[in-house]
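Re-run with default settings, no changes from the original entry. Doing this only to confirm the output is reproducible before filing.
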Amino acid sequence: MWYEQQEIGKRQPICGPPLRQEISMNRKMLWIAALSLGLTAGCGAARPANYYQLTIPGNRTTATERSPYTVTLLVGPLRASHLYREDHIVYSSAGEHMGTYQYQRWAEPPTEMLEEIMLRELRASGKYRAVDALRSNSRGDFILYGRLYDFKEISGAPLSTRLTLDLELRDVKSGSTVWTHFYTHDEPAGEKDIAAVVAALNRNAQRGVAEMISGLDQYFSTHAAGN
């Protein structure tokens, strides 16, 4: 009899805690399931990214110059901060604060898009014996280098965009810089939406490249080294 009471006494205290543990475990499982459902719903509602690109004139035929400059021109990569070597569209507000849009992006980094426009427009001008991108095995007479400082939206009234680009032409044979050009311009965006900002940056880029081509033309037309 004593043995039976002792066994019962051993079993009864143990019955309570497992029941409470089971209830607590069920609550935890319900909480985890609810959290998982919330995360799944949140992922399903994620906004898709929108991509934009600069336009390259596609209806322009290569000009045929009677006496093109007898030089091969190489276009080097544009240097820039990491902001312009990535695909997010950059904005800036009052002071020195800058940021990037999470869902508004370029199809390619601004440095690469601008290099492509420069390359194609120089070729289309028909003023050079050859125009090519700078590579490890490239051979040319002059190399065009550049640094991109600004390619961004400027918040304010009115909304505008800024392109700041510093270019230099280097003579391969002498290693000296023979021509430089600094471009900076704020182009109004007009409307307060991302499409207007992209269009304004596109106009700014076209204007900057046109100035570069005009400046190079002036240099080669007045220097014997370019003829």
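The two ends are 120 Å apart (CA to CA). The first strand starts at residue 50 and ends at 52.
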